[in-house]
Design goal:
With 174 residues, the chain is mainly beta. Helix content is 4%, strand content 26%. The protein has a 5-stranded mixed sheet with strand order 7-9-11-12-15, covered by helices on one side. A 4-stranded parallel sheet has the order 4-6-8-10, with no helix packed on it.
Length: 174
């Protein structure tokens, strides 16, 4: 089903509209490949979202208004991020299990929202161009897979500082 936002009332035609304030957790079942426009719009009390490994697309403004949602893990199967998918949410930490999505639609998925984007240090698909396509106030946080005192992806030693990159409107650098 497509969920349509009524701009006059700032509501969406959810079948669960009567329960909007009671919903605190969302679990999307395995086999779902697409989450349509506005599907979780304005679910202000949601603190937890579990996305399936089958998910390929997150559409327009699906988490807008989910102001209690602080973190989200995106599955490795995600290929597409829609217009402002995470903008206007409470998300501060966005974890990508694998590659950067192949396509972005229109305005940046994170817009001007300040957010940490967590990715594996060995993931070469996260370029400055991909990160800047996500938004303008993002920090890239590289995570390591430790085996003893050494990262199995990049060879870094545990006592080395973890790299972090901050992007702002004026510059992009890695």
């Amino acid at each position: 089903a497509e969920y349509v936002r009524n701009s006059d009332t700032d509501t969406v035609n959810y079948p669960w509209a009567d329960y909007i304030n009671a919903i605190t957790a969302i679990v999307v079942e395995e086999g779902i490949t697409n989450l349509d426009n506005y599907v979780f719009y304005n679910l202000k009390n949601v603190t937890s979202v579990t996305l399936p490994n089958s998910l390929e697309r997150l559409e327009t403004r699906i988490f807008k208004g989910c102001t209690s949602l602080q973190a989200l893990t995106v599955p490795s199967t995600l290929k597409y991020l829609g217009l402002e998918a995470f903008a206007g949410s409470g998300i501060k930490d966005l974890y990508f299990k694998a590659n950067a999505p192949e396509k972005f639609s229109g305005t940046k998925p994170c817009a001007n929202q300040s957010m940490n984007v967590h990715v594996s240090c060995g993931n070469a698909s996260w370029t400055a161009d991909k990160l800047s396509a996500m938004g303008t106030a993002l920090s890239l946080v590289l995570t390591h897979k430790w085996s003893g005192d050494q990262c199995t992806d990049c060879g870094a030693a545990k006592d080395m500082p973890v790299a972090s990159v901050t992007l702002d409107r004026a510059s992009v650098s890695l």
